[in-house]
Design brief:
The chain has 297 residues and is mainly beta. It has 3 domains: 10-70, Immunoglobulin-like; 87-193, Immunoglobulin-like (Sandwich); 196-293, Immunoglobulin-like. It is 4% helix and 49% strand. A 6-stranded mixed sheet has the order 9-10-11-7-16-13. A 4-stranded antiparallel sheet has the order 2-1-5-6, with no helix packed on it.
């Protein structure tokens, strides 16, 4: 593993951090043995076969992440000064002012494992398997280094903020999901402020429906480009329900009496209930009240 630092300056010698990866996410930092030769190269031993993320950082140097696949009995060379195999993603946020944008944290969630590609750390921008740093002249611009792959974009740090769209350059964006390749790419996140809420009463045969499952289903259910998600609640003893922090958009409101055995995650199952639901259109920061008849499970 040739070091990016010059061999003559031992004070700047970098040292690797090695983390094993799997299909289910990260397995944590891996212990290993290392020897630094006279040329500044680092010989690493003791790694089991598998895929690893290697990051190299010396005093005053930036983290340099790279991926390598280790096979049994093989000797491999990883040149940390070469072009990175990681995805270098520049992220820009528009729709809110710069000061607000700087308070927003962007997470890339692996849909397979449900884990964040990022880890919190100093300043909130040193991430798990990634380096997210503030841009220079553009306060709302950051750069993130992550393994290439498909991720769900999640915004944190500002509760009422929501994603209205993603424009990608040298990457692919469909709805809330992005696929980023090795090398440089740019994601422009279009956001707005002001989530909505829906409250009301569910009844059946003229009486409150107690313990009913209430679902607020996006009208675009099944569309991979849709940004909204299903919200749900259980009615109280008076049949009341509360659905908060809802993204503006068009929905179908349904209530299913004693419906907690219904597979609500299956679009084909919900389609029949949606035919008898109540259409609801929610604008930014709207607060809507509805009365709905609960359907049989």
């Amino acid at each position: 593993m040739p070091d990016a630092a010059t061999a003559g300056d031992r004070r700047m010698q970098a040292y690797p951090m090695i983390e094993k990866l799997s299909a289910g996410g990260r397995l944590g930092y891996t212990p290993f043995s290392a020897h630094i030769d006279s040329q500044g190269g680092i010989d690493v031993g003791g790694l089991a076969p598998g895929r690893y993320e290697v990051r190299l950082q010396g005093r005053g140097q930036a983290v340099k992440p790279a991926l390598i696949d280790v096979t049994a009995g093989a000797v491999q060379t990883l040149d940390m000064s070469a072009a990175s195999t990681m995805a270098s993603v520049s992220i820009r946020i528009d729709g809110i002012d710069e000061a607000e944008a700087n308070s927003v944290r962007v997470s890339l969630i692996d849909p397979g494992s449900g884990r964040n590609a990022a880890r919190d750390g100093a300043g909130g921008y040193f991430l798990r398997g990634a380096l997210l740093r503030r841009g220079g002249a553009e306060g709302a611009s950051r750069t993130m280094e992550v393994p290439p792959g498909r991720y769900e974009v999640v915004l944190m740090g500002k509760p009422n903020l929501y994603l209205t769209g993603i424009t990608a350059q040298s990457a692919e964006a469909v709805g809330r999901f992005v696929t980023v390749p090795s090398g440089s790419s740019t994601l422009n996140l279009h956001v707005a402020d002001g989530r909505a809420s829906v409250t009301g009463i569910a009844s059946k045969d003229g009486k409150p429906s107690v313990g009913a499952m209430v679902l607020l289903v996006p009208a675009t259910l099944g569309n991979p480009a849709g940004l909204n998600i299903i919200r749900r609640d259980q009615t109280n003893t008076d049949g009341s329900f509360d659905l908060n922090d809802v993204l503006p958009g068009q929905y179908i409101l349904i209530a299913i009496d004693q419906g907690w055995q219904v597979n609500w995650k299956d679009p084909s199952t919900l389609n029949g209930y949606m035919l008898h639901g109540v259409p609801v259109e929610l604008h930014s920061a709207a607060s809507v009240k509805e009365e709905i008849e609960a359907q049989a499970p």
